[in-house]
Structures are given as C-alpha cells and as structure tokens.
Predict the structure.
Amino acid sequence: MADPTQLYLIRHGETDYNLKSIIQGQLVDCSLNETGRSQAGILAKELSGVAFDNFYSSTLKRAQETAHIVASPHSVVQIQLVPELQEMSFGNLEGQPYGGQNQIVFERIAARVQNGIFTDRPGEGESVLDVQMRAVMGVEKIVRQNPGKTVAVVTHGRLLRILLATILDGFSLETMEELLHNNTAFSRLTVTGSLYEPLTLCSDDHLHDNGGVAEVAKNAGDGDSIPGEKGHSGILRNSTLSN
C-alpha cells in the first residue's frame, strides 16, 4: 500500500464581502482585502516548514490569491486550478446582503438540513448534495494523483463544511455546522485509501498567535460564512446555511 497522503484543506482569506456580510458564492468573484492578504501571509509563515509537493485551488480569485501567498515560501511551480472546489452556488442571492428576508431563507434551509433534507437550492443555485458530489470527486482525484505526497487545497467555507462532514467519521451533513473554517483556517488530514484521519481540524490559531495582526473575519457572505459565535476550535453555534 502506498504511503498516506498528507492533505491540508485551507479556507481563503477575508474579502470585503465577508466583512460586509454579503453573500458571495460563485458569481461574486472578488479579491482578498488587506486583512485577507495579511491572514494569508501569516498562514504562509505558519506552514513554511511543510514540504508541500503540490498546491491546488478553487478557480475563484479569493482562493487563488490565498494559494499563491501560502505557496510563496515553497518551490511549487504553479497552482493547479480545480473547478470542483468552487464555493456553493447561491444563485440569484449572490451579491445580496445576508440579512432580512435572505436570512430567513437560509435559516429555514439550515433547519431542514439539520433534519436530513439536503435538496433545497437557495436562490435556485446548488443543493448541499450537488456540492457534496463535486467536492468529494475533486478531492478524491487530488488524493489519487498524489499518493504519499503532501498537498495543499485552498477553497471555501461552505464547501469545506460539506466536504469534511462527508469524509470524516463522527460527522454528518446534519452536523456540518460544527465544522467552522474561519478565514485561512486549515485542517490537516492523513489519507490512507478511503480513510481520512484529522490531525488538525479547523484551526486558525496562527491568527491569534500573532498579536492580532490579522483579525478573524466577521464570518459572513461567502456563501462562506454567516454571523455566529466563533472560536479556535472551529465550532459555530446558531449558524445558518449561507456561509
């Protein structure tokens, strides 16, 4: 059997849309803001001693920019783009503020998810099952291409919740809100065959160990996050789907 693959799953840095609680998803393809670039730089320093073989990213700008910054201390030739790693599509809700009627919509969908209903499509975008299928497919392909190697994957908050809730024992789609990835938080997994074992889960400790240089984003509007209680452990309470 091949040696395990070391898989680092990373959420992108903060954008102005995160800061303003505006839903991003796929069509709002914005860049990192100053805080986001600072967060990515701190993570780059944190992971500078890891011998990465390859870097992969969502095709969206906020993920690509984060990947390039995190990869900068390493001799990686290029960032490989993976369309399957894009954030969940929120359809016609993208670009709108999270709040008011939109918040009600997401809270209703989140309640249904917690009751095992995964087919709702906010804003006529994607369902949780749609994202689950493509996210798992994309990550499994990366793992197959990198037996025994160490790889970084930069993607988005909602996709990461769905992905981790699917591949990790002890979680389910109903409990995905326990898996909060703040901006530039990362999870480190060892992958052997079809077994994904977490060594680090949803950690943003690097941001808090730097004297507050890069404040944790106001988790909202990626489809990547929403207002709620945040902590280093990655637990978010009173959360909804639009992250």
Observations:
- Residues 212-221, 225-240 have pLDDT under 50 and may be disordered.
- Helices lie at 16-19, 34-46, 61-71, 100-114, 128-145, 157-167, 205-208.
